[in-house]
């Protein structure tokens, strides 16, 4: 409960109850810090891994597209947390555009790997079903969903948000760019969570994300009963 209730000691005193603290987590969660194309262990700064060469994408300055693709190619889901609705849509559009360029481009090892995960007919079928649920479907969302990419924020109607979540659980959606509203109370099968910015405001540095919000975000990765690990 400490991830959602900051004043547990006060609550315990009011309830005349004992407060227990534990860092136990049934599913291992590995936190890393992205610098360039390498992931570092946050305390020692030791290099944990580096993006493969074919996922180092031009103009992907913070490598978020590469890290999303790395997770998708492994057959897993990824949540990308952004600071605003506009940032969510832009990120989803960027990932979707790159995936489209690969899937419709010349034959390559990356294309073959991506085709093994993203089935075109299945994606079209999912979009058709989505339209039945939400007839006034967001036009950008309709485009990105064809490549297993979506965004999730308060600007979407409830039916759209629920359909995106359902698609993620079913594997028709592999990547969701979301605001912090998705970080609480939603159990989704995400292997990786990416917090793109430490700032809580989309247009200026500061204030930082609170520790409670950060813990809620990263806690979406590696959910018990759904996945075996998270990062």
Structure description:
Keywords: ATP-binding, Helicase, Hydrolase, Nucleotide-binding. GO terms for molecular function: ATP binding; helicase activity; hydrolase activity. This is Helicase C-terminal domain-containing protein. Helix content is 37%, strand content 14%. The protein has 231 residues and is of the alpha/beta class. It has helices at residues 8-15, 64-73, 85-103, 109-115, 120-133, 139-145, 158-170, 211-218; strands at 28-29, 33-35, 38-40, 47-50, 77-81, 149-152, 175-178, 190-195, 229-230. It is built from eight helices and nine strands. Helix 3 packs across helix 6. A four-stranded parallel β-sheet has the order 6-7-5-8, with helices on both faces. It has a three-stranded antiparallel β-sheet with strand order 2-3-4, with no helix packed on it. A hairpin with a 2-residue loop joins strand 2 (33-35) and strand 3.
What labels would you give this structure?
231 residues, alpha/beta, three-stranded antiparallel sheet, 8 helices, globular, Helicase C-terminal domain-containing protein, Hel308_SKI2-like
In short:
With 231 residues, this protein is of the alpha/beta class. The protein has helices spanning 8-15, 64-73, 85-103, 109-115, 120-133, 139-145, 158-170, 211-218; strands spanning 28-29, 33-35, 38-40, 47-50, 77-81, 149-152, 175-178, 190-195, 229-230.
